[in-house]
Amino acid sequence: MEYISTRGKVEPIGFIDAILMGLADDGGLLVPKHIPQLSADTLQKWQKLSYSELALEIFSLYVNNEIPRNELKQLVDDSYATFRDEAVTPVKRLNDSTYVLELFHGPTFAFKDIALQFLGNLYSYVSRKTNSIIHILGATSGDTGASAIEGVRGKEGIRICILHPHGKVSKVQELQMTTVDDANVLNLSVEGTFDDCQRIIKELFADVEFKHRYHLRAINSINIARILAQTVYYFYAYFQLANNNQAEKVNFSVPTGNFGDIFAGYLAQKMGLPIHKLILATNENNILERFVQDGIYQPGAFRGTHSPSMDIQVASNFERYLFYLYGEDAQAVSAIMDQFKAEGRVVIPADKLQAVQADFAAYGVQNDECLDTISEYYEKYAYLLDPHTACGVAAADKLAVDGEVTVALSTAHPAKFDESIRLRSIEQTYPQQIQALFNKPQFQTVVGGTNDEIKDQLVKFF
Predict the structure, then answer these.
(1) Where residue 378 sits, what CATH number does that domain have?
(2) Given this model, what pLDDT does residue 247 score?
(3) Any idea what DSSP says for residue 400?
(4) Spatial distance between the Cα atoms of 232 and 61, rounded to a whole number of angstroms
(5) What is the 3-state secondary structure (H, E, C) of 5-20?
(6) Which pTM was predicted?
(7) CA torsion 179→185→188→189, rounded to 10°?
């Protein structure tokens, strides 16, 4: 398998070079040169596999022979041995038509662990095999940072710097990042929004000379390995329903701000997984909902919400979808992204909008509606949703059709967002690992939101 850029100005590269490159050197995003097509027989064979066995089969399609199968198996097994549930990503039934896919059983109680436990081990493997330096730079709206740090803390040959928006993540998310005192970890609390952090990251990676001089590697979902790892749980969830004769018409409702998690579902669908409908659930920062409805991609005013990890206006993975929407035409994608940079908006023609609406349904969940959903499901089903998962469930309810079942992706443990949940007078008991964070000192540096200030910190750290 080779990987190419959405903007077409990077020669095809292998899997390891792709994960090391992160953001393509031409400013685009890396995608597989072709998407593997799975037969019905293959899907049937995979249906009885464990999570780790399934992950190995899917990764093998994209890694080819760059990593020997026995070594890839060890990477996969080590990555998912850290999860608290034997199923890794169990599916729980809420009612006749709604299920939740619990993605929060990893070390930091967030879905980002699914990809970042693997990517952390993969980076460590590459560092050992190639005797190379790995300097990871990432931005987080809350969960990516803690998961990434947990995946690489203390590992030889790797240093990691994470940017998060100052005062705009939940307290537990902040503590999970900033109570880590390992020498290879730097937390920068940036005065601004997550979009500011993400912009800085993409611009620093686009500075190819700086990127190569300081051996910068990506941990955000601009890294294709993140997307590939996340496709696995779509297959696994579908198979769990199929094993219980519940797979006639299966939808997935995905809380999203950065388009990475739902793009993984889109990729699984293009591989041949018979997903009936992909539902894109946003909060009041609903640029993606507006794109699906109107064909206009234009950031609006930033809104702080009860689901802060989705408080994102510019979705970094959107460009990957545009690549496929425009028939893998890199020149067209480059022109669109240049237009977006110059004008701050993209408008697609009617035929493309029709294709988008065939690929996705979308619904933007208002703040009170999010909290109402938490209350309703807690009272009716004794199931406590975190506010991001609640957006996915609310969208599933809004777009429900008789004869279909919808799996809402449960993206975080509710303990990570107690501030929102307490607004509806619901009390919860923290897991011991989270409760212990409140007694630990914090280590972070507050910085301004300019590229030069971040560069100064990186030069000193790396």
Answers:
(1) 3.40.50.1100
(2) 67
(3) -
(4) 12
(5) ECCCCCCCECHHHHHH
(6) 0.93
(7) -20
Residue 347 lies in a domain: yes
d(CA 292, CA 308): 22
Q: Is residue 5 part of a domain?
A: no
Domain presence at residue 283: yes
- Host domain of residue 284: 91-109+225-422
pLDDT digits (tens, 9 = 90+) for 137-193: 999 987 889 999 998 998 888 999 999 999 999 899 999 999 999 999 999 999 999
State the total domains in the chain.
1
SS (H, E, C) 67-112: CCHHHHHHHHHHHHCCCCCCCCCCEEECCCCEEEEECCCCCCCECH
Residues forming the active site: 112
Contact (CB, 8 A) for 362 and 279: yes
Distance CA 144, CA 228 (A): 16
Is residue 65, in this structure, part of any structural domain at all?
Answer: no
| Each residue's pLDDT tens digit, 87-131 | 999 999 999 899 999 999 999 999 999 999 999 999 999 999 888
User: Do residues 151 and 185 lie in contact, with contact meaning Cβ atoms separated by under 8 Å?
Assistant: no
Query: Residue 403: is it exposed, middle or buried by C-beta count within 10 angstroms (0-12/13-18/19+)?
Result: exposed
DSSP 416-458: GGHHHHHTTT---PPPHHHHGGGGS----EEE-SSHHHHHHHH
